[in-house]
Amino acid sequence: MVPFRKMHGLGNDFVVLDARAGALPVTPARAAAIADRHFGIGCDQFIIMEKPPPGADVFMRIRNPDGSEAGACGNATRCIASLVAEEAGKDRVVVRTIAGDLPVERLPGGLWRADMGPARLRWDDVPLARKVDTLHVPLSLGPVSGPAACSMGNPHATFFVEDLDAIPVAELGPKLERDPIFPDRANIGFAQVLSPAHIRLVIWERGAGLTLACGSGACATVVNAARRGLTGRRATVSLPGGDLVIEWREADGHVLMTGPVATAFSGTLDLGAYGA
Fold this sequence. Notes:
Layout: E1 2-9, E2 12-18, H1 28-35, E3 45-50, E4 58-63, E5 69-70, H2 74-88, E6 92-97, E7 100-107, E8 111-118, E9 140-141, E10 144-145, E11 148-151, E12 155-160, H3 169-177, E13 187-195, E14 198-205, E15 209-210, H4 215-227, E16 234-239, E17 242-248, E18 254-260, E19 262-269
Parallel strand pairs: 2-3, 4-6, 12-13, 14-16
Antiparallel strand pairs: 1-2, 1-19, 3-4, 4-5, 6-7, 7-8, 8-18, 9-10, 11-12, 13-14, 14-15, 16-17, 17-18
Subunit structure: Homodimer.
Active site: 73 (proton donor), 73, 214 (proton acceptor)
Binding site for substrate: 12, 45, 64, 74-75, 154, 187, 205-206, 215-216
């Protein structure tokens, strides 16, 4: 029996296991089974806290509900940072992922701000399948076309639309995620710019589908909107689960994400009940 926490950032929810004291037998298939909302605990991402490497306070391993490994998850980063910070009595910690180090700091009002690192804008950084302009990717499907793309440790493409409510996100998302232009698949954002400092966003997440919030997707959306001159470098992003404040820092190109964290419940699970 293994202890777990169910946490979320704006409804983007996670099953969190702590493997810092020793490795746990969590295979991709087992993670997918636990993430299943009908036969498991259910989550958007499955998170394992691992022993911190030098220079970091914790290593965070991320798996999508299909068992595939993800490089970044902004909402999970804040959640894990809050746990480690509370344990250590610190206001600033560094979370390491396979995509790099993410410093996170406590702010007043129960908020946490994560430095998600620099946005990567080259076509081969996203990555895309061929050399194209990442500000206007030659891709269209139904009512959407010409997304902007970047990497926030994972691939993102943002379609800017006039009326978000008119877009059949659940129909378009899975097809666009797997378009050949994205060799590693991609997170697909559908964004409506409400003002130069406010964006409404729905994300179809790679390997997860529709989620109530996506931190790295919100970061990518502000970067892509600012690159197109649609917003400034700081904006509130309203997702179905709530708001994140994103700032694309001019000095070094890093993207800062501010939002809340929450623990829904905790318990224990039998890993052996979820296959091999």
